[in-house]
Automatic annotation (TrEMBL):
GO terms for cellular component: plasma membrane. Residues 1-24 are annotated as: Disordered. It comes from Streptomyces minutiscleroticus. It comes from the Bacteria. This is ABC transporter permease. The lineage of its organism: Bacteria, Bacillati, Actinomycetota, Actinomycetes, Kitasatosporales.
Amino acid sequence: MASVTSTQTSAGHPSTGGGQRRSRRSWGSTVAGVIVLCVMLFPLYWMLNTALQPESGLLKVDPVPGSLDLSGFSKAITDQGGHLLTSLVVSLGAVVICLAIAAPAAYGLARFGLRGSKTIVFGTLITQMVPGIVIANALYNSYVDLGLVNSYFGLMLADASLGIPFSIVLMRSFMVSIPGEVIEAAQMDGAGPVRTFVAVVLPMSRNSLITSGLFAFLFSWSDFMFALTLNTTDEVKPVTLGIYQYIGAHVGDWGSVMAASVLSAIPAAILLVLAQKYIAAGITGGSVK
C-alpha cells in the first residue's frame, strides 16, 4: 500500500511541476504584454496630457495634469473643426468608391475562373509597393487635365486607390471560401449573376466588407501625401494637412496642436473598437475553407 501511495505521489509531482511552469510562463507573458502595451500607449497618453495643459511649454508638462484645462480643445475645434469634417466626408466617400470597385472585382476573380486571375491578384499586391509620392506626382498631371485638382471627388478617388488593392485581395480570399452550392442554389431559383452577387454573396461576405471598408477609411483618414499634392488651395483641406500647417503657424502652442491630434485620433479609435470582432472574422475568414 505504501509503495502504491509512493508511486502515485511520485507520478503526481511532474504534473504539478508542469502546471506551475505553465502558470509562471502565463504570468511572464502577461507582464511582458502589459509592458509592451504601456510603451505603445505612452505617446498617446503624453499627447492627451499635453493637450490638457495648454499653457505649459512642451518641455514643462507635468507627468500628471493637476487640473483639466480644456481651452486647448476648444481652440482646436474652432481652428480644425472644418478640416475634421472635410476628412470625414472624404474618407466616407473613399470607402464607398473603394467597396464599389473592389467587391465586384474580388467576386469576378474568385468565381468566374478568369485566365490569369492569380497574376492579377499578384499585380494588385505589387501596386502597394509603389511609393506614394510617385503615384501622387503622376496623379497631379492627370488631375490637372481632368479638372479634379482641389475637389472633394478627386481626393476621394485618390484616397480610395490606397484601399482598393488590399480590399480586392481580402474579399477575394473570403469569397473563394463561399460554398459553390449556395451560389448554384440561387441561380437555380432564377437569380442572375448580379442578383446573386448582391443578394447572396455580399451578405455572406459582411465581415470582409466591414474589414475592407474600415481599412479604406483608415487609409484615407491618415492620408497626407495626396492631400498635400492634389490641393493647391484651402478649399479641400483634410485634418492631416490642417495639423501640418497648424504646427508651422502655432509651434509655440503645443497644447492646441496636441488637442487637434487627439481629436483627429478619436474617430479611428472608435471605429476600431466597434469593428474589432468583424476585423478578426474578416481577416481570418478566408483562411479556412
